[in-house]
Specification:
The chain is built from 9 helices and 5 strands; from the N terminus they run E-H-H-H-H-H-E-H-H-E-H-E-E-H. A 5-stranded parallel sheet has the order 2-1-3-4-5, with helices on both faces. It has helices at 19-33, 50-60, 65-70, 72-86, 99-107, 122-131, 155-162, 178-187, 217-222, and strands at 3-7, 112-116, 171-175, 190-194, 209-211.
């Protein structure tokens, strides 16, 4: 049974590549809900799904929960359209150091499967990775995204199902926030946390292993009990 590696995107595979992403979501909220202002300073986005971020913004703006739910699908569709318009054609300068080399090395192995668990809407995730030159490492129909569930804790199990029902003990979430760790723990999967995002290594307690650079992932995998067997 291969080991399923579920990579986060922002702060993990790509760094500071979310400007157009945030602008697209805000533009969608303005268009669908006719918001005049976005209360950006009060929004905690790291590790959250796009739907959860949208809900927080709309709640702060005084939009009712019922209206948020009724128009959630419209916001997703509009955010995809806006990101298609706003996303730079080339995001290669935002690829995390060592990401390309790591994915090339892992993709050549027959004992691991590469996939995604990210709070990004799938349309955003796929386009962002493609612009960074990393999209071809992640097969269509695999992974789990913010467009699948507002609750990030739901995503690892869905990604495991899409990968052929890989067992939790053969699955590793690789991310950079406490919410990556929490979603792994909620599903009973392993977690490698990396301090390349907004959180320091000391903030990432609860992961199986905390690393500083992506190139450390292969060694980290050998240190997780049970994966080598």
């Amino acid at each position: 049974m291969p080991t399923l590696l579920l990579f986060d995107i922002d702060g993990t595979l790509m760094l500071k590549a979310s400007r157009a992403h945030a602008e697209a979501l805000h533009a969608a909220l303005r268009r669908v809900h006719h918001l005049r202002e976005i209360p950006e300073g009060k929004i905690e986005a790291a590790g959250r799904t796009d739907d959860a971020i949208a809900r927080q913004i709309l709640t702060l703006a005084g939009v009712s929960a019922e209206r948020i739910d009724e128009r959630a699908a419209d916001v997703r569709v509009q955010a995809c359209a806006e990101y298609k318009r706003l996303c730079p054609a080339d995001l290669s300068d935002h690829v995390a150091p060592g990401a390309l080399e790591l994915l090339e090395k892992l993709s050549a192995r027959d004992d691991v499967t590469l996939s995604l668990v990210t709070g990004n809407l799938e349309c955003v995730a796929r386009r962002k990775l493609a612009a960074g030159g990393l999209g071809h490492f992640f097969a269509p129909g695999q992974g789990a995204f913010g467009s699948d569930s507002e609750d990030r804790a739901d995503l690892p199990a869905l990604a495991r199902s899409r990968a052929g029902n890989i067992a939790p003990e053969r699955t590793v979430v690789i991310g950079d926030t406490p919410r990556d760790i929490a979603c792994a723990r909620a599903d009973g999967t392993h977690c490698i946390a990396i301090s390349t995002g907004p959180f320091r290594a000391t903030d990432l307690y609860g992961a199986d292993i905390v690393i500083d650079m992506l190139r450390e992932v292969p060694t980290a995998l050998t240190r997780i009990p049970g994966l080598a067997s």
